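Now read this:
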Amino acid sequence: MTTDAVSPLADPLDPAPPGDAGPEIVTREGDDDLPAVRALILAAYPDVVPDLVAGTTVADLLASVEGARAAYAAVAARIGPAGEGPAGPPVAIPGGGGAPLPVDPDRLPASEKIRRGLRAMPAAPGAPGGPR
């Protein structure tokens, strides 16, 4: 069993220790696995601007991560901590239960006047809901 000098969880952008050349990245132009490698980089580095992680080789993709991280950090610093709203007191929203608005009977259609009139009438004796 052989051991690698680089941990699989090591940050590929960190400089290698002195005297260690680090892992060699072998890529070719137009690599078919680039979308998968880019997706892996985006999953490994959630603190990057995804549109800035680009390149035609794996080395280019890895090199673009630092710039994408810096852009993300700049935007995050400009926005402020999560959950911090705009300056000033929060907007008061009434809880409801206000008084009903007055209704102008002259503006009601005839069908609504009839419905309200029938609802206001006491139920006839023997009718469902009425006195017995």
